[in-house]
Specification:
There is one protein chain. The protein has eight helices and nine strands. The mean pLDDT is 92. It is globular and about 45 Å long. The protein has a single domain, classed as Acetylglutamate kinase-like (Carbamate kinase). 40% of the residues lie in helices and 16% in strands. With 228 residues, it is α/β, with parallel strands linked by helices.
Length: 228
Protein backbone atom coordinates (compact mmCIF):
# COMPACT_ATOMS: atom_id res chain seq x y z
CA UNK A 1 0.00 0.00 0.00
CA UNK A 2 3.04 2.31 0.02
CA UNK A 3 2.26 3.62 -3.45
CA UNK A 4 -1.28 4.43 -2.26
CA UNK A 5 -0.10 6.39 0.78
CA UNK A 6 0.47 10.11 0.36
CA UNK A 7 2.09 12.77 2.51
CA UNK A 8 0.45 16.16 2.13
CA UNK A 9 2.13 19.13 3.77
CA UNK A 10 -0.73 21.60 4.11
CA UNK A 11 0.44 25.19 4.43
CA UNK A 12 -0.92 27.16 7.35
CA UNK A 13 -1.77 30.02 4.99
CA UNK A 14 -4.38 27.75 3.39
CA UNK A 15 -5.92 26.78 6.72
CA UNK A 16 -5.82 30.24 8.29
CA UNK A 17 -5.21 33.05 5.77
CA UNK A 18 -5.21 36.69 6.90
CA UNK A 19 -9.01 36.82 6.83
CA UNK A 20 -9.37 33.98 9.36
CA UNK A 21 -10.00 30.23 9.19
CA UNK A 22 -10.98 29.29 5.64
CA UNK A 23 -13.70 26.79 6.47
CA UNK A 24 -14.95 26.75 2.89
CA UNK A 25 -11.57 25.56 1.61
CA UNK A 26 -11.30 23.02 4.44
CA UNK A 27 -14.74 21.63 3.63
CA UNK A 28 -13.79 21.10 -0.03
CA UNK A 29 -10.41 19.65 0.98
CA UNK A 30 -12.15 17.23 3.36
CA UNK A 31 -14.54 16.09 0.63
CA UNK A 32 -11.66 15.44 -1.78
CA UNK A 33 -9.56 13.48 0.71
CA UNK A 34 -12.52 11.38 1.80
CA UNK A 35 -13.41 10.61 -1.83
CA UNK A 36 -9.83 9.44 -2.42
CA UNK A 37 -9.92 7.30 0.73
CA UNK A 38 -12.87 5.42 -0.77
CA UNK A 39 -10.54 4.49 -3.64
CA UNK A 40 -8.14 2.84 -1.18
CA UNK A 41 -5.71 5.70 -0.52
CA UNK A 42 -4.23 6.65 2.86
CA UNK A 43 -2.87 10.03 3.93
CA UNK A 44 -0.47 11.75 6.28
CA UNK A 45 -1.62 15.36 6.63
CA UNK A 46 1.00 17.69 8.11
CA UNK A 47 -0.23 21.19 8.94
CA UNK A 48 1.87 24.33 8.87
CA UNK A 49 1.59 27.38 11.11
CA UNK A 50 1.40 30.06 8.41
CA UNK A 51 -0.02 33.44 9.31
CA UNK A 52 -1.00 32.26 12.78
CA UNK A 53 2.60 31.48 13.68
CA UNK A 54 3.93 34.69 12.15
CA UNK A 55 1.36 36.84 13.97
CA UNK A 56 2.27 35.34 17.34
CA UNK A 57 5.98 35.77 16.65
CA UNK A 58 5.49 39.37 15.51
CA UNK A 59 3.33 40.19 18.53
CA UNK A 60 5.86 38.77 20.97
CA UNK A 61 8.64 40.73 19.28
CA UNK A 62 6.77 44.00 19.78
CA UNK A 63 6.65 43.41 23.52
CA UNK A 64 9.96 41.78 24.40
CA UNK A 65 13.23 40.55 22.97
CA UNK A 66 12.34 37.03 21.91
CA UNK A 67 14.87 34.23 21.47
CA UNK A 68 14.72 32.00 18.41
CA UNK A 69 13.87 28.99 20.59
CA UNK A 70 10.74 30.74 21.88
CA UNK A 71 9.81 31.87 18.37
CA UNK A 72 10.06 28.27 17.26
CA UNK A 73 7.78 27.08 20.05
CA UNK A 74 5.17 29.70 19.11
CA UNK A 75 5.32 28.35 15.59
CA UNK A 76 5.17 24.72 16.72
CA UNK A 77 2.08 25.28 18.84
CA UNK A 78 0.46 27.15 15.96
CA UNK A 79 0.98 24.12 13.71
CA UNK A 80 -0.44 21.84 16.38
CA UNK A 81 -3.52 24.01 16.79
CA UNK A 82 -4.08 23.77 13.03
CA UNK A 83 -3.44 20.02 13.22
CA UNK A 84 -6.08 19.63 15.92
CA UNK A 85 -8.52 21.49 13.70
CA UNK A 86 -7.83 18.98 10.91
CA UNK A 87 -8.14 16.04 13.31
CA UNK A 88 -11.49 17.40 14.46
CA UNK A 89 -12.98 17.72 10.98
CA UNK A 90 -11.59 14.30 10.00
CA UNK A 91 -12.66 12.74 13.29
CA UNK A 92 -14.32 9.67 11.74
CA UNK A 93 -11.37 8.74 9.54
CA UNK A 94 -8.28 10.09 11.35
CA UNK A 95 -6.08 8.63 14.08
CA UNK A 96 -7.18 10.08 17.43
CA UNK A 97 -3.85 11.72 18.22
CA UNK A 98 -1.71 14.07 16.18
CA UNK A 99 1.93 13.29 15.45
CA UNK A 100 4.23 15.34 17.67
CA UNK A 101 7.36 13.22 17.23
CA UNK A 102 7.67 11.87 13.67
CA UNK A 103 10.44 9.44 14.66
CA UNK A 104 7.96 7.37 16.71
CA UNK A 105 6.21 5.05 14.29
CA UNK A 106 2.44 4.77 14.72
CA UNK A 107 0.63 1.53 14.07
CA UNK A 108 -2.84 2.66 13.10
CA UNK A 109 -5.52 1.23 10.86
CA UNK A 110 -6.97 4.70 10.29
CA UNK A 111 -6.87 6.12 6.78
CA UNK A 112 -5.58 9.52 7.92
CA UNK A 113 -2.80 10.40 10.33
CA UNK A 114 -2.32 14.08 11.13
CA UNK A 115 0.78 15.84 12.39
CA UNK A 116 2.14 19.26 13.26
CA UNK A 117 5.45 20.72 14.41
CA UNK A 118 8.04 18.72 16.30
CA UNK A 119 10.78 20.69 18.07
CA UNK A 120 12.78 23.92 17.72
CA UNK A 121 14.96 24.08 14.62
CA UNK A 122 12.69 21.92 12.47
CA UNK A 123 9.78 23.03 10.29
CA UNK A 124 6.73 20.99 9.32
CA UNK A 125 8.46 20.46 5.95
CA UNK A 126 11.14 18.63 7.92
CA UNK A 127 8.49 16.64 9.80
CA UNK A 128 7.08 15.55 6.43
CA UNK A 129 10.52 14.36 5.26
CA UNK A 130 11.08 12.38 8.46
CA UNK A 131 7.67 10.74 8.05
CA UNK A 132 8.60 9.87 4.48
CA UNK A 133 11.72 8.19 5.84
CA UNK A 134 9.94 6.35 8.67
CA UNK A 135 7.14 5.00 6.49
CA UNK A 136 9.20 4.53 3.30
CA UNK A 137 7.14 6.97 1.23
CA UNK A 138 8.90 8.61 -1.71
CA UNK A 139 6.63 11.57 -2.57
CA UNK A 140 5.56 14.63 -0.60
CA UNK A 141 2.87 16.96 -1.93
CA UNK A 142 3.50 20.43 -0.58
CA UNK A 143 0.40 22.63 -0.76
CA UNK A 144 0.79 26.35 -0.20
CA UNK A 145 -0.44 29.62 -1.71
CA UNK A 146 1.98 29.50 -4.66
CA UNK A 147 1.59 27.45 -7.83
CA UNK A 148 5.24 27.32 -8.84
CA UNK A 149 8.72 27.88 -7.46
CA UNK A 150 10.57 30.75 -9.13
CA UNK A 151 14.27 31.44 -9.53
CA UNK A 152 13.73 34.53 -7.34
CA UNK A 153 10.83 36.14 -5.51
CA UNK A 154 8.55 37.26 -8.38
CA UNK A 155 7.07 39.99 -6.16
CA UNK A 156 10.50 41.60 -5.92
CA UNK A 157 11.93 40.72 -9.32
CA UNK A 158 9.78 40.72 -12.45
CA UNK A 159 12.55 38.83 -14.26
CA UNK A 160 12.12 35.79 -12.00
CA UNK A 161 11.57 32.62 -14.00
CA UNK A 162 9.01 29.92 -13.28
CA UNK A 163 10.38 26.45 -12.55
CA UNK A 164 8.29 23.41 -13.45
CA UNK A 165 10.96 20.77 -12.76
CA UNK A 166 14.35 20.83 -11.08
CA UNK A 167 16.76 18.75 -9.03
CA UNK A 168 17.64 19.21 -5.36
CA UNK A 169 21.06 20.68 -6.08
CA UNK A 170 19.58 23.60 -8.01
CA UNK A 171 16.59 23.99 -5.73
CA UNK A 172 18.84 24.28 -2.67
CA UNK A 173 20.71 27.14 -4.34
CA UNK A 174 17.39 29.03 -4.24
CA UNK A 175 16.36 28.31 -0.64
CA UNK A 176 19.83 28.35 0.94
CA UNK A 177 21.02 26.30 3.92
CA UNK A 178 19.77 28.09 7.02
CA UNK A 179 16.50 27.80 8.92
CA UNK A 180 15.03 30.55 11.08
CA UNK A 181 11.63 30.75 12.83
CA UNK A 182 8.85 32.04 10.59
CA UNK A 183 10.92 31.51 7.43
CA UNK A 184 8.68 31.67 4.36
CA UNK A 185 10.17 29.39 1.70
CA UNK A 186 8.59 26.96 -0.81
CA UNK A 187 10.31 24.10 1.06
CA UNK A 188 12.59 24.84 3.97
CA UNK A 189 16.41 24.54 3.64
CA UNK A 190 16.93 21.84 6.30
CA UNK A 191 14.08 19.73 4.97
CA UNK A 192 15.45 20.17 1.44
CA UNK A 193 18.83 18.84 2.50
CA UNK A 194 17.24 15.75 4.05
CA UNK A 195 14.89 15.25 1.09
CA UNK A 196 17.91 15.25 -1.22
CA UNK A 197 19.63 12.62 0.95
CA UNK A 198 16.49 10.45 0.90
CA UNK A 199 16.02 10.97 -2.85
CA UNK A 200 12.45 12.13 -2.33
CA UNK A 201 10.19 13.70 -4.91
CA UNK A 202 8.46 16.86 -3.71
CA UNK A 203 5.64 18.49 -5.64
CA UNK A 204 4.99 22.13 -4.78
CA UNK A 205 1.70 23.60 -5.93
CA UNK A 206 -1.18 25.89 -5.03
CA UNK A 207 -3.40 24.08 -2.56
CA UNK A 208 -6.42 26.17 -3.50
CA UNK A 209 -6.60 24.33 -6.81
CA UNK A 210 -8.12 21.10 -5.52
CA UNK A 211 -8.83 19.72 -8.99
CA UNK A 212 -5.07 19.93 -9.58
CA UNK A 213 -4.46 18.03 -6.32
CA UNK A 214 -6.88 15.37 -7.51
CA UNK A 215 -4.85 15.05 -10.72
CA UNK A 216 -1.65 14.59 -8.70
CA UNK A 217 -3.23 11.89 -6.54
CA UNK A 218 -4.46 10.05 -9.61
CA UNK A 219 -1.22 10.35 -11.62
CA UNK A 220 -2.66 12.71 -14.21
CA UNK A 221 -1.15 15.86 -15.71
CA UNK A 222 -0.78 18.58 -13.08
CA UNK A 223 0.46 22.11 -12.58
CA UNK A 224 3.29 22.81 -10.14
CA UNK A 225 7.02 22.46 -9.49
CA UNK A 226 8.48 18.97 -9.18
CA UNK A 227 11.79 18.48 -7.36
CA UNK A 228 13.63 15.15 -7.42
Amino acid sequence: MKNQTFIISLGGSLIVPDCGIDFQFLKKFKNLIESEIKKGKRFFLISGGGHTARKYIEAAGKIAKVKDNDKDWLGIHSTRLNAHLLRTIFRNTAHHEIIKNPTVRLHSDKKIIIGGGWKPGWSTDYVATVIAQEYEIKTIINLSNIEFVYTQDPKKNTQAQKITSTDWKNFRKIVGNKWKPGLNMPFDPIASKKAEQLKLKVIITNGKNLSNLKNILNEKKYSGTTIN
